UniProtKB/TrEMBL annotation:
Entry-linked InterPro entries: HotDog_dom_sf, MaoC-like_dom
GO molecular function: (3S)-3-hydroxyacyl-CoA dehydrogenase (NAD+) activity; 17-beta-hydroxysteroid dehydrogenase (NAD+) activity; enoyl-CoA hydratase activity
Annotated protein name in UniProt: MaoC-like domain-containing protein
BP terms from Gene Ontology: fatty acid beta-oxidation
Pfam families to which the protein is assigned, alphabetical: MaoC_dehydratas
SUPFAM superfamilies named in the record: Thioesterase/thiol ester dehydrase-isomerase (SSF54637)
Length: 77
């Protein structure tokens, strides 16, 4: 089983790239729930919905067809 911090790293990279132009200082608050384990080698898709400076997100393992991070919320500045 892939450690949760590895999954968090994949998700954080997707949010930094997509929502913050690789500027980590723009991360103000973040909340999320780990909802299922990820196995090494699985593909993780991060789904992002933006509403102004609030971003909702979740991550899905494509191989398991399961949500692995759910109820994600990010506040950017």
């Amino acid at each position: 089983i892939l450690h949760g911090l590895s999954t968090l790293g994949v998700m954080t990279h997707a949010l930094l790239r997509t929502c913050c132009d690789y500027e980590p200082d723009r991360f103000k608050q973040i909340r999320l729930r780990f909802s299922a384990p990820v196995l090494p080698g699985e593909t993780i898709r991060t789904e992002i919905w933006r509403n102004g400076n609030e971003i909702a997100f979740r991550c899905k393992s494509l191989e398991q067809n399961k949500i692995v991070i759910n109820n994600g919320w990010l506040l950017v500045g």
